[in-house]
Amino acid sequence: MTSYSLAGRRALVTGGAQGLGEGMARALAAAGARVVIGDIDPLGKDTAASLGDGHGHVTLDVTDDASWEEAIVSTVEQVGGLDLLVNNAGIEITSLLADLDAADAARMLNVNVLGTALGIKHGFRAMRPGGAAGEGGGIINIASVAATIAFPGISVYSATKSAVDRLTRVAAMESGKLGYGVRVNCIYPGLVPTRMGAGLANDVAQIGLFGSPEEAVGAVIELTPGGRLGTVEDMADAVVFLASDASRFITGAGLPVDGGMGM
Hints:
Layout: E1 10-14, H1 19-30, E2 34-39, H2 43-50, E3 56-59, H3 65-79, E4 84-87, H4 102-127, E5 137-142, H5 155-178, E6 182-189, H6 195-206, H7 213-222, H8 232-243, E7 254-257
Protein backbone atom coordinates (compact mmCIF):
# COMPACT_ATOMS: atom_id res chain seq x y z
CA MET A 1 0.00 0.00 0.00
CA THR A 2 1.34 3.43 -0.93
CA SER A 3 2.34 5.65 1.96
CA TYR A 4 1.05 9.16 2.52
CA SER A 5 4.55 10.16 3.59
CA LEU A 6 5.83 13.43 2.14
CA ALA A 7 9.38 12.99 3.41
CA GLY A 8 11.79 14.92 1.21
CA ARG A 9 9.09 17.08 -0.39
CA ARG A 10 9.26 20.89 -0.35
CA ALA A 11 5.98 22.86 -0.21
CA LEU A 12 4.76 26.44 -0.45
CA VAL A 13 1.34 27.15 1.09
CA THR A 14 -0.26 30.50 0.27
CA GLY A 15 -2.52 32.09 2.85
CA GLY A 16 -0.83 29.82 5.37
CA ALA A 17 -0.72 32.22 8.29
CA GLN A 18 -3.99 31.03 9.81
CA GLY A 19 -7.24 29.19 9.16
CA LEU A 20 -7.35 26.44 6.55
CA GLY A 21 -3.95 27.38 5.17
CA GLU A 22 -2.29 27.01 8.55
CA GLY A 23 -3.94 23.63 9.05
CA MET A 24 -2.79 22.47 5.63
CA ALA A 25 0.75 23.64 6.31
CA ARG A 26 0.82 21.78 9.63
CA ALA A 27 -0.52 18.60 8.05
CA LEU A 28 2.05 18.72 5.25
CA ALA A 29 4.82 19.24 7.80
CA ALA A 30 3.52 16.39 9.96
CA ALA A 31 3.64 14.15 6.87
CA GLY A 32 7.32 14.98 6.42
CA ALA A 33 7.39 17.93 4.02
CA ARG A 34 9.46 21.04 4.54
CA VAL A 35 6.96 23.88 4.34
CA VAL A 36 7.21 27.57 3.50
CA ILE A 37 4.33 29.76 4.61
CA GLY A 38 3.53 32.42 1.99
CA ASP A 39 1.23 35.16 3.24
CA ILE A 40 0.77 38.91 3.23
CA ASP A 41 -0.21 38.66 6.91
CA PRO A 42 2.82 39.18 9.23
CA LEU A 43 1.41 36.37 11.41
CA GLY A 44 2.76 33.98 8.78
CA LYS A 45 6.25 34.36 10.20
CA ASP A 46 5.10 33.18 13.63
CA THR A 47 3.16 30.29 12.09
CA ALA A 48 6.24 29.18 10.19
CA ALA A 49 8.39 29.40 13.33
CA SER A 50 5.88 27.25 15.20
CA LEU A 51 6.38 24.46 12.66
CA GLY A 52 9.95 24.04 13.92
CA ASP A 53 13.32 23.90 12.24
CA GLY A 54 13.55 23.24 8.53
CA HIS A 55 10.51 25.28 7.55
CA GLY A 56 10.28 28.84 6.27
CA HIS A 57 8.29 31.97 5.58
CA VAL A 58 7.98 34.46 2.74
CA THR A 59 5.87 37.57 2.43
CA LEU A 60 3.61 37.01 -0.57
CA ASP A 61 0.97 39.13 -2.26
CA VAL A 62 -0.65 36.56 -4.53
CA THR A 63 -2.05 39.26 -6.84
CA ASP A 64 1.43 40.57 -7.71
CA ASP A 65 3.63 38.92 -10.35
CA ALA A 66 6.88 40.24 -8.90
CA SER A 67 5.92 39.08 -5.41
CA TRP A 68 5.40 35.56 -6.78
CA GLU A 69 8.80 35.60 -8.49
CA GLU A 70 10.49 36.60 -5.24
CA ALA A 71 8.50 34.04 -3.24
CA ILE A 72 9.52 31.16 -5.49
CA VAL A 73 13.18 32.14 -5.37
CA SER A 74 13.03 32.47 -1.59
CA THR A 75 11.21 29.14 -1.18
CA VAL A 76 13.80 27.28 -3.23
CA GLU A 77 16.58 28.91 -1.21
CA GLN A 78 14.98 28.18 2.17
CA VAL A 79 13.98 24.54 1.68
CA GLY A 80 16.15 23.46 -1.23
CA GLY A 81 13.50 23.15 -3.94
CA LEU A 82 9.78 23.10 -4.67
CA ASP A 83 7.65 19.99 -5.17
CA LEU A 84 4.26 21.14 -3.91
CA LEU A 85 2.27 24.35 -4.17
CA VAL A 86 -1.01 24.85 -2.32
CA ASN A 87 -2.92 27.84 -3.72
CA ASN A 88 -5.05 28.49 -0.66
CA ALA A 89 -5.09 32.29 -0.31
CA GLY A 90 -8.58 33.67 -0.81
CA ILE A 91 -11.14 36.16 0.44
CA GLU A 92 -14.94 36.19 0.72
CA ILE A 93 -17.08 39.34 0.87
CA THR A 94 -20.77 38.66 1.38
CA SER A 95 -23.34 40.64 -0.60
CA LEU A 96 -26.68 40.34 -2.26
CA LEU A 97 -26.39 40.80 -6.01
CA ALA A 98 -28.71 43.80 -5.82
CA ASP A 99 -26.23 45.47 -3.46
CA LEU A 100 -23.00 44.38 -5.13
CA ASP A 101 -20.03 46.70 -4.69
CA ALA A 102 -17.75 46.72 -7.72
CA ALA A 103 -14.61 47.26 -5.67
CA ASP A 104 -15.38 44.29 -3.44
CA ALA A 105 -16.05 42.11 -6.49
CA ALA A 106 -12.75 43.19 -8.03
CA ARG A 107 -10.88 42.31 -4.83
CA MET A 108 -12.31 38.79 -4.83
CA LEU A 109 -11.52 38.32 -8.50
CA ASN A 110 -7.96 39.54 -7.99
CA VAL A 111 -7.15 37.40 -4.96
CA ASN A 112 -9.14 34.26 -5.74
CA VAL A 113 -8.80 34.02 -9.52
CA LEU A 114 -5.74 36.04 -10.51
CA GLY A 115 -3.89 34.93 -7.39
CA THR A 116 -4.48 31.27 -8.21
CA ALA A 117 -3.61 31.76 -11.88
CA LEU A 118 -0.34 33.44 -11.00
CA GLY A 119 0.42 30.66 -8.54
CA ILE A 120 -0.04 28.08 -11.27
CA LYS A 121 2.11 30.14 -13.62
CA HIS A 122 5.03 30.42 -11.23
CA GLY A 123 4.61 26.90 -9.90
CA PHE A 124 4.87 25.56 -13.44
CA ARG A 125 7.91 27.68 -14.25
CA ALA A 126 9.71 26.46 -11.14
CA MET A 127 8.77 22.76 -11.29
CA ARG A 128 8.88 22.03 -15.02
CA PRO A 129 12.10 20.75 -16.65
CA GLY A 130 14.67 23.52 -16.68
CA GLY A 131 12.95 25.43 -13.87
CA ALA A 132 14.46 26.48 -10.56
CA ALA A 133 13.33 23.17 -9.02
CA GLY A 134 12.78 21.25 -12.25
CA GLU A 135 11.67 17.87 -10.91
CA GLY A 136 7.90 18.08 -11.43
CA GLY A 137 5.49 17.94 -8.54
CA GLY A 138 1.97 18.89 -7.64
CA ILE A 139 -0.25 21.95 -7.41
CA ILE A 140 -3.35 21.85 -5.23
CA ASN A 141 -5.84 24.69 -5.62
CA ILE A 142 -8.45 25.43 -2.98
CA ALA A 143 -11.87 25.97 -4.53
CA SER A 144 -15.06 25.69 -2.43
CA VAL A 145 -18.37 23.90 -2.18
CA ALA A 146 -19.64 27.34 -3.23
CA ALA A 147 -18.52 26.41 -6.74
CA THR A 148 -21.10 23.61 -6.84
CA ILE A 149 -24.16 24.98 -5.00
CA ALA A 150 -26.36 28.07 -5.21
CA PHE A 151 -26.06 29.53 -1.72
CA PRO A 152 -27.43 33.08 -1.39
CA GLY A 153 -25.19 36.03 -0.57
CA ILE A 154 -21.95 34.68 -2.05
CA SER A 155 -22.48 35.08 -5.78
CA VAL A 156 -19.12 36.57 -6.76
CA TYR A 157 -17.22 34.35 -4.34
CA SER A 158 -18.98 31.34 -5.88
CA ALA A 159 -18.05 32.56 -9.34
CA THR A 160 -14.39 32.92 -8.36
CA LYS A 161 -14.28 29.42 -6.94
CA SER A 162 -15.89 28.03 -10.09
CA ALA A 163 -13.07 29.76 -11.95
CA VAL A 164 -10.52 28.03 -9.72
CA ASP A 165 -12.04 24.71 -10.78
CA ARG A 166 -11.68 25.58 -14.48
CA LEU A 167 -8.13 26.87 -14.00
CA THR A 168 -7.26 23.57 -12.35
CA ARG A 169 -8.50 21.46 -15.23
CA VAL A 170 -6.92 23.54 -17.99
CA ALA A 171 -3.65 23.68 -16.07
CA ALA A 172 -3.61 19.90 -15.69
CA MET A 173 -4.10 19.50 -19.44
CA GLU A 174 -1.36 22.00 -20.28
CA SER A 175 1.05 20.34 -17.87
CA GLY A 176 0.41 16.95 -19.42
CA LYS A 177 0.60 18.11 -23.02
CA LEU A 178 3.79 20.08 -22.45
CA GLY A 179 5.54 17.46 -20.32
CA TYR A 180 5.86 19.57 -17.18
CA GLY A 181 5.44 16.59 -14.85
CA VAL A 182 3.19 18.60 -12.53
CA ARG A 183 -0.16 17.20 -11.39
CA VAL A 184 -2.84 19.86 -10.78
CA ASN A 185 -5.92 19.18 -8.66
CA CYS A 186 -8.30 21.09 -6.43
CA ILE A 187 -10.50 20.47 -3.42
CA TYR A 188 -13.95 21.87 -2.65
CA PRO A 189 -14.04 22.51 1.10
CA GLY A 190 -17.39 22.67 2.84
CA LEU A 191 -18.10 25.31 5.48
CA VAL A 192 -15.49 25.22 8.25
CA PRO A 193 -15.83 27.35 11.41
CA THR A 194 -12.60 29.29 10.86
CA ARG A 195 -12.60 33.07 11.07
CA MET A 196 -13.74 33.24 7.44
CA GLY A 197 -16.46 30.63 7.97
CA ALA A 198 -17.78 32.31 11.09
CA GLY A 199 -17.68 35.65 9.30
CA LEU A 200 -19.81 34.27 6.49
CA ALA A 201 -22.45 33.02 8.95
CA ASN A 202 -22.55 36.44 10.60
CA ASP A 203 -22.69 38.27 7.29
CA VAL A 204 -25.57 36.30 5.74
CA ALA A 205 -27.56 36.88 8.90
CA GLN A 206 -26.71 40.58 8.89
CA ILE A 207 -27.99 41.09 5.35
CA GLY A 208 -31.27 39.42 6.26
CA LEU A 209 -30.97 35.99 4.65
CA PHE A 210 -31.18 34.21 8.02
CA GLY A 211 -32.49 35.17 11.42
CA SER A 212 -29.14 34.60 13.13
CA PRO A 213 -25.67 33.19 12.47
CA GLU A 214 -26.75 30.02 14.26
CA GLU A 215 -29.69 29.66 11.88
CA ALA A 216 -27.33 30.06 8.93
CA VAL A 217 -25.02 27.35 10.26
CA GLY A 218 -28.03 25.11 10.87
CA ALA A 219 -29.12 25.58 7.26
CA VAL A 220 -25.70 24.49 6.04
CA ILE A 221 -25.72 21.41 8.26
CA GLU A 222 -29.23 20.54 7.06
CA LEU A 223 -27.95 20.62 3.47
CA THR A 224 -25.03 18.34 4.40
CA PRO A 225 -25.62 14.57 4.40
CA GLY A 226 -22.57 14.22 6.65
CA GLY A 227 -24.57 16.03 9.33
CA ARG A 228 -21.92 18.47 10.51
CA LEU A 229 -19.62 21.28 9.50
CA GLY A 230 -16.20 20.46 8.14
CA THR A 231 -13.04 20.73 10.19
CA VAL A 232 -9.63 22.11 9.32
CA GLU A 233 -8.29 18.56 9.66
CA ASP A 234 -10.80 17.26 7.09
CA MET A 235 -9.46 19.70 4.52
CA ALA A 236 -5.81 19.31 5.47
CA ASP A 237 -5.95 15.52 5.17
CA ALA A 238 -7.37 15.84 1.66
CA VAL A 239 -4.47 18.09 0.70
CA VAL A 240 -1.95 15.59 2.07
CA PHE A 241 -3.61 12.84 0.02
CA LEU A 242 -3.43 14.87 -3.19
CA ALA A 243 0.17 15.80 -2.42
CA SER A 244 1.21 12.19 -1.85
CA ASP A 245 2.06 9.32 -4.16
CA ALA A 246 -1.27 7.74 -3.22
CA SER A 247 -2.81 10.13 -5.78
CA ARG A 248 -0.06 9.69 -8.37
CA PHE A 249 -2.51 8.99 -11.24
CA ILE A 250 -4.93 11.78 -10.33
CA THR A 251 -4.74 15.10 -12.13
CA GLY A 252 -7.29 17.62 -13.33
CA ALA A 253 -9.68 16.51 -10.59
CA GLY A 254 -11.86 18.34 -8.10
CA LEU A 255 -12.26 16.54 -4.79
CA PRO A 256 -15.35 17.46 -2.74
CA VAL A 257 -14.55 17.59 0.98
CA ASP A 258 -17.96 18.84 1.99
CA GLY A 259 -19.82 16.00 3.67
CA GLY A 260 -21.92 15.57 0.54
CA MET A 261 -23.31 19.12 0.53
CA GLY A 262 -22.44 19.75 -3.10
CA MET A 263 -23.52 16.44 -4.58
